[in-house]
Design brief:
- The protein has 188 residues and is of the alpha+beta class.
- It has a domain of 124 residues.
- It contains 2 helices and 8 strands, in the order H-E-E-E-E-E-E-E-H-E.
- Strands 1-4-7 form a 3-stranded antiparallel beta sheet. A 3-stranded mixed beta sheet has the order 5-6-8, with helices on one face.
- A hairpin with a 4-residue loop joins strand 5 and strand 6.
- The chain is rod-shaped.
- The two termini are 14 Å apart.
- 13% of the residues are buried.
- The N terminus and C terminus are likely disordered.
């Protein structure tokens, strides 16, 4: 059986060795997605708080704008599980579900297409704030599965590249996605 060693020292390949190599990365952003979106906002002044469906005529405030945003998805590498099987010369890496590491709006990119103030119902900064919080949640719901799929694909390529530079040929790296990572028995 052929043993693998690190490039700098003659260290045997173990689960701890592989975990150390990967944990040096800490947080791995595997997908950066830039997007441009056209969105609308509308709100009307309520006649009475306890009758929210009654609205004051001509009190509708609304706007339409275009903005750009950036989403980064990836992994906290403390959540991965690693199993090294020396008999089969295999390294199994179990990745958790990718998560959104950051989601930001480029406020310099905002272009207001049109806006209309309502009677006694002016557009306020709070309206923009709530609008963008809502837009981020909506974007996450609408695009989550596709972005996570792409993040997983990139993670597999990046981890294989990282491990390929630290171990010699001979071990096969297997990456698996787990919705909920379970404890994996480690046998050395």
């Amino acid at each position: 059986m052929k043993k693998l060693y690190s490039d700098t020292k003659r260290t045997s390949i173990t689960s701890e060795f592989v975990e150390q190599q990967i944990s040096e990365i800490s947080e791995l952003a595997t997908l950066h997605h830039h997007y441009r979106k056209n969105a609308n906002y509308q709100d009307a002044k309520k006649l009475l708080e306890y009758m929210p469906d009654w609205r004051i005529n001509k009190s509708i405030k609304e706007f339409s704008l275009v903005y750009e945003g950036d989403v980064k998805l990836g992994y906290d590498l403390k959540d991965i599980k690693i199993l090294v099987e020396p008999n089969t010369q295999s390294i199994f890496i179990y990745l958790p579900e990718p998560r959104i590491l950051s989601h930001s709006i480029d406020f310099e990119s905002i272009q207001i297409l049109w806006e209309r103030q309502g009677w006694f119902n002016n557009i306020r900064f709070e309206d923009f704030k709530q609008f963008f919080i809502s837009e981020q949640k909506k974007y996450k719901q609408e695009n989550s599965e596709e972005l996570k799929r792409r993040a997983r694909e990139h993670a597999m390529k990046l981890i294989q590249l990282r491990l390929g530079t630290t171990i010699e040929h001979g071990y096969k790296v297997n990456l698996e996605q787990r919705d909920h990572v379970q404890e994996i028995p480690i046998s050395e």
